[in-house]
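MODEL INPUT / OUTPUT PAIR
PAIR INDEX: 1
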Amino acid sequence: MTHFLLNGEPVDIDVEEDTPLLWVLRDNIGLTGTKFGCGIGLCGACSVHLDGETVRSCQTPVGDVSGKQVTTIEGLTREDLHPVQQAWVEGNVPQCGYCQSGQIMSAAALLAENPDPSDADIDLAMSGNICRCGTYGRIRSAIHRAAELMSEQTDVVQHFDPDDPLVRRVS
């Protein structure tokens, strides 16, 4: 039995510990946002976060996630859209869309670590994600836009004053 947190919720799964996390997510748990691409960890379509770090779920045995936090595209945010997802929509990034959940997960991890990445930072962080349609320019632009959106959210939180007389109180 393997125990871990999946998108903030506890999971107990009884599968062989060498079963790839990808197949546990898709086949056993039913979360199909994480995609199978190459099966050897090179394309990035299966990217998820393991304790905040991007990993290839096709190459991560489920036994290795015991006691850890796994975040999939379905759990990236509990709100409407994560800023990366919002930027992807605004920038009309995907063509076929197959690689996009892995791209988004890698971009979100980059921005969590580096809130204002340069083009070179983005290229390096995203180099492990392959887009067959070649939307790399739109991906880079969307990551810059997501960084702006995240900065705007931070500014709002930092400037919120609960004692401001204009703040509406709900009881």
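PAIR INDEX: 2
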Amino acid sequence: MNIKIYKRGQGKHTRRGTAGALGIMAVMGCNSLYSSLSTLRNSAGNTGVWLQAGITALVLAGVFFGIYKLVNWVRFADFLIKTEGEIKKVSWSAKKEVITSTKVVLITVISMAILLYAVDFVLVEIFGRLGILNI
């Protein structure tokens, strides 16, 4: 069987990542489908188990075939190839800069949370004593 891959070798990482993410979602969906088909197992006995597993396997095979066709569809594959090309052009921050920026963001968020809690606490006390807010 000859498998034709559109522009083989280009956009390899984005295609694999996209196919992998869609594959994980497909497996999770088929797991849910398998659980939903438990009434077949309960009504048909041992045959129901095979029917439940067979339907789920057919759906999963169909979805995987669809994923393969999607990542090789000309327009979508070109989009993924261009996306990978753009990602390669990005200048990524150094590890030290990312850690420093993360610390700044965390300190800012925690400070704002404490400030908002304090303002809320003061306003609740003021409105409670004025009889506007009944807690």
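PAIR 2 NOTE: The chain has a mean pLDDT of 87.
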